[in-house]
Amino acid sequence: MDLISQIISLTFLAQVLRLFTPYFLGANAANFSERSGVVNIAIEGFMIISAMGYALFTIFSGSAVVGFFSAILVGILFSLLFSLFVIKLKINQIVAGVGFNLLMAGLVKFLIIFLFQSSSNTPRFDSLPNIYFLENIPFIGKVLSDYIILFSFALIFISNFVLFKTKFGLRLRSVGENPEAGESLGIKVRLYKLYGVIICGFLASLGGIWLASNQNSFSDGMIAGRGYIAIAAMIIGKWKPVNIFVACIMFAFFEALEISLQISGTFIPSQIVQMLPYLITILVLIGFIGKTKPPAADGIPY
Amino acid sequence: MVLLVIGKNPFEVFSLMFSDVFGSGYGLGQTLFKATPLIICGSGLAICFHASLFNIGAEGQLNAGSFVIGLVAYYLSGLPFFVAIPAALICGFIVSGLLGLVPAIIKVEKGVSEVITTIMMNFIILALINFFLIDFFAVKSTVHTEKISDAVMIPKFSDFMPMFQGSSLNFVFVFAILIAVAAYFFIYKTRFGYEIRAVGYNDTASKYIGIKINKIILSSFFIGAGLTSFVGMNFIMGYKGYYEFGFSNNLGFTAIAVALLAKNNPIGVIFSALLFGFLDYGGLTVNTIVPKEIMFVIQGIVILTILSVDKLVEKYYLK
């Protein structure tokens, strides 16, 4: 009973919304990339490197705002590098993604040790400024006053609008569905793929920055597979922003539940709850929860 | 390397690396020891990749198999080693293989790409292992299983050749080479291997010459994933004597790079695994000058560079 009253509290809701943010940013990042036909496993790597970027630039400049913009830049730069491999050189996207993730994980470990002589985390630093007058609302003030959380809510509408209501979105999707047809209509296919990957880098880096800002330090392994969960959420959400939103809320709920379970120490093993998102993803893929259909030309170099 | 612009002399670093690795039997031994699991896992993955199956799930598969190998070897400690070791290996092979079958079946039955399912399976398998390990099998307040008896340990090279004194190199290395050679013959010299390559190259054409594609997908996944379990042998029987959670340290992903680097040729896998083993141990030798993690960075760069060069060569020479 204790657990149930815990779940319906506002604190729990705030927790769910906080866990939801990086997933949703990551899932939208993945979606923009995949809609343009680029399978991007490297989201995990993008999140890691931009979280690290935020940490470094905040520490060395002393200003969280500088850190923020530099980290966005870092995310975009690495997404450009990634596009060089997958769009220009047409390396297999999954292989490049795996290689990228290994590289990023190694790079941040190396940087932490090299710069801070610590094996696992950076010194503490400031988090991003908040909207100060909303901060004092009880329980959910911290959520409502956070720019990135608010942005990720707006993203439901922004993503939907950009993908389905603008000329840009139409072209982006056509590139992911049938690049030949797009090309014959004069769309610059590779350019649109590049746009997709850059937007992906931008959104993923927001996710990474938020995590670092929220913890006030960067620790090795802090992204902990969130990039992969984000991709899972995108698949469950069938490449549609509104559905992705629901999937992310679900994952965040499970994770919050897992944390509560660990604290209250019930009989359900936390590892079982931990693997639920992945299990559900596979079930969705098998077709238990409706048909899923990725963009037709997803993962095929052009 | 551009990355050593951080103010250390790259030549100093690399010469130290070379002299430490090749200058002593210990260094050489450690390099071969580090290469051993990569040879095994890379050979297994090469079989999957030949069928154009992207098995990203080796990390989970090899952990499950190794876990089982550790347990079986522990519980069968009473039996003579020539029974206990094969029994443990067979159990490990079957468990890893069956876990590899899951994404294969989903692919065959539902047409779902194995890439996403294998990635998801990694997380599921690791969570399950963690659950079984901590709740049932682990030595209290550790994340490893009970130590197996010395009778089922594989002898070390240093027992016979004093030059490898102190190194963990053991006869699993020889076993790994044998696996790679066997995988080579399997892929290139048997009818079954031919069918695997045919399916990987052009599945539609294969279907019309009477190859049962589904059978090939299922069996190559089973064999490839099963082989990854033998990785545990090196760590459990050749080194620590128990299965420890997290021992693989992303080996399943590195092995993907090893296999691709060798263009999925198991003999080539031996050499690319040696290169990665060299980087891995070499990182340790220079740890006092630069953090050893630099080697992960170099490994990542090596992967991406080689893939790019490969594509460029393809583009400009084979036009």
What does this structure look like?
The complex is a heterodimer of chains A (302) and B (319). By secondary structure, chain A is an all-alpha fold. Helices cover 73% and strands 0% of the residues of chain A. Chain A contains 13 helices and no strands. Chain A has helices spanning 2-7, 10-35, 43-61, 64-88, 93-116, 141-144, 147-165, 167-177, 179-184, 189-215, 226-236, 241-264, 270-286. Chain A is globular and about 60 Å long. The mean pLDDT of chain A is 84. With 319 residues, chain B is mostly helical. Chain B has one domain: ABC transporter involved in vitamin B12 uptake, BtuC, CATH 1.10.3470. In chain B, helix 1 (10-23) crosses helix 12, helix 4 (81-110) packs across helix 5 (114-137) and helix 11 (251-261) packs parallel to helix 13 (294-317). Chain B is globular. The two termini of chain B are 31 Å apart. The mean pLDDT of chain B is 84. The interface between A and B is large, with 42 and 43 residues.
Which secondary-structure class do the elements of chain A indicate? mainly alpha
Number of domains of chain A: 1
- Given as residue ranges, the uncertain stretches of chain B (5+ residues, pLDDT < 50) are none
What share of residues are in beta strands of chain B? under 5%
CATH topology of chain B: ABC transporter involved in vitamin B12 uptake, BtuC
Radius of gyration of chain B: 20 Å
Largest interface, with Cβ-Cβ < 8 Å?
Answer: A-B, 42 and 43 residues
Largest sheet of chain A: none
Total beta strands of chain A: 0
Instruction: State the end-to-end distance of chain A.
Output: 56 Å
Topology as H/E string of chain B? HHHHHHHHHHHHH
Which term fits the overall shape of chain A?
globular
SSE class of chain B: mainly alpha
CATH class of chain B: Mainly Alpha
Q: Strand portion of chain A, in percent? A: under 5%
CATH architecture of chain B: Orthogonal Bundle
Question: If helices are DSSP runs of H or I spanning 4 or more residues, what is the number of helices of chain A?
Answer: 13
- Mean pLDDT across all amino acids of chain B: 84
